Amino acid sequence: MTFQSHAPDTPMPVVDLAIVEANLRRMQAYCDQHGLKLRPHIKTHKIPDLARRQLALGAVGITCQKIGEAEVMADAGIDDILISYPLIGASKVGRLGALAKRAHISIVADSPMGIETAAAAARDAGARIGVLVEFESGGARVGVQSPQEALALARLITQTPGLDFLGLMTYPLGERAAAFLVEAKRLFEVEGIAIPSISAGGTPTAFSAHNVPGVTELRVGTYIYNDRNTVDAGAAGLDDCALHIEATVVSRPTENRAIIDAGSKTLSSDLTAGGAARGYGLLRDYPEAVIVKLNEEHGIIDLSACKEKPALGERLRIIPNHVCVVVNLHDEILVHNGGSDAKMVRIAARGLTR
Amino acid sequence: MTFQSHAPDTPMPVVDLAIVEANLRRMQAYCDQHGLKLRPHIKTHKIPDLARRQLALGAVGITCQKIGEAEVMADAGIDDILISYPLIGASKVGRLGALAKRAHISIVADSPMGIETAAAAARDAGARIGVLVEFESGGARVGVQSPQEALALARLITQTPGLDFLGLMTYPLGERAAAFLVEAKRLFEVEGIAIPSISAGGTPTAFSAHNVPGVTELRVGTYIYNDRNTVDAGAAGLDDCALHIEATVVSRPTENRAIIDAGSKTLSSDLTAGGAARGYGLLRDYPEAVIVKLNEEHGIIDLSACKEKPALGERLRIIPNHVCVVVNLHDEILVHNGGSDAKMVRIAARGLTR
């Protein structure tokens, strides 16, 4: 590849836009085939130009997790943004309202306090904010526990000035989703409240979303790059992984130990569902090697199972376990297009926890 | 505290400079008492003003892990910088040389290739670079395995134009250090090579460094803030932890589950040596609660063991497991001085992996 002749300094996240484009088109085609709206989650890439590409290919809008991410995307001219995270309390009101004045903003809530926060933002800004009610479908995270609770919140939203009830959402698309939706639809129909949208999320389960009756919208993030987790889930192959970390072997203290310059500051400490035995990333060129431990700047590799072993100074390519957290660690990323046109791109929405 | 009346947006890393000052003075006093030179590692705070405070209190210089960190500190006028990480290959030569032209730079090496890299930088820049040989003392990371190897590298350094042999270093200060040093001193004496400095690192073992004969310098980072790991190691108490994460309960889906807005993007996925059972951080006000799981923006808390349980919207204070990786995740930090003079400070050297 062209950029390799320049031997970029390491550790370096590298993205192949040719693979990105194929990944984006595959997901859009799946959604088009099944009549699902695609609302990509930008948490994986955090780059406005890639969000714009997702919209150009047919996405109806984007998903962000935090107000700061939505601000970056609104700055880039993106007009339809769902913040799929509960916003709670006075410190969120001002920025949410300011955002709602300059873009079509929707949020999610699983409590009256979340609805109050959005209502205060809409009132102060003189804007409207859409609200989806989040329900739990087996992920043991946030979300109302019963269709009755969902109905009570939907009723509150419809009665609150400045807010529009947009429907229901869940993440991930777990086992309880179908049963929940059947009962919710029945209850909402009795009450006379329409459910405009039913939004489901998560790349690992994305390609079975059409099997859950009622789902109208898909929120997926990781599919743009893919990673070891999505490969493990069967949602992608290794060759669909658009991002790798380029690292250098900086020490070979023993026969079966190599140290690379990619530690937890580069790869994060996230494991796969397979746990510690599978290590902190996959070495493309030495798949038998295991990244057994990470310090901040050191990746410690066990080479016991390798016939060929990497040499000091050698460049290694690593597929991360969880690409979203890896992207968040870096200010910029080296992108190329099938080996050409390499350039550094700023990850404009990284690190925005608020 | 004053800043709490402003209710900062969350999640927010918060540092009490009064605790910082006490931590800095305690370590400097320990080093002064035992005739050890203190060379603090800035990887924990990554803030030039705090490095300058460490120097003002008596530190002989600072330690950085990457060239980018050293560049930020040199920009701030700091003149004596050890880069305690193996620099390998052509991509490191240019920046290392440029740095050596404007500050006193030393590096570590455990291979001839590391020495060659430094030599090329010194030659190209027309500058001198100090080199310490890193040895392994039980940490199973980098470093030469035997005093014989250390001697061979020291000999190479003394024979290489532009380089000065500065001594030996290790991290952490493990069980094999004392025996290694006895044998190394004997070998070096026979060869007639002086060992100007023996540098040891790590906050958990810091206060026993004087028990290892020959150690002349202490490289410690975490002691400035402390964290759950240093408390577990007995090197600090909970009240010596200068940094906490302020988070908000954003969902209370069930009786015994609370979700906070601090996930792995805020706390990192680092566990303590105690493993998953101890969770991803300590809740100061609910010590029986366990942060059982982190998603990127969600911290999932099990409240089963709590008599009192936090309410939706409540602010919680979290002591991180590993404060260095937490600091690296944030662009800025809220500092105050015992509750007064709160202000946001930029973490200038965060994210510098190269």
Series of secondary-structure elements of chain A, N-terminal to C-terminal: HEHEHEHEHEHEHEHEEHEEHEEEEHEE
Largest sheet, strands/sense/barrel of chain A = 9 strands, mixed
- CATH architecture designation of the largest domain in chain A: Alpha-Beta Barrel
- Domains counted in the coordinates of chain A: how many? 2
Count helical runs of chain A: 11
Q: Which term fits the overall shape of chain A? A: elongated
Under CATH at level 1, the class of the largest domain in chain A stands as Alpha Beta
Low-confidence stretches of chain A: 1-5
Largest interface: A-B, 62 and 62 residues
Q: What is the terminal separation of chain A in angstroms?
A: 38 Å
Written overview of the protein:
Two copies of one chain form a homodimer. Chain A has helices at 2-5, 17-33, 48-56, 67-75, 93-102, 112-125, 147-158, 177-191, 228-232, 264-267, 323-328, and strands at 12-16, 37-38, 62-64, 80-83, 104-109, 129-134, 163-170, 197-201, 217-219, 243-254, 257-260, 282-283, 290-294, 299-302, 315-319, 332-337, 340-346. In chain A, helix 6 (112-125) links the parallel strand 5 and strand 6. Chain A is α/β, with parallel strands linked by helices. In chain A, strands 1, 10, 11, 12, 13, 14, 15, 16 and 17 form a nine-stranded mixed sheet that branches. An eight-stranded parallel sheet of chain A has the order 2-9-8-7-6-5-4-3. Mean pLDDT of chain A is 96; it is low at 1-5. Chain A has two domains: 2-11 and 236-346, Beta Barrel (Lyase, Ornithine Decarboxylase, Chain A, domain 1); 34-225, TIM Barrel.
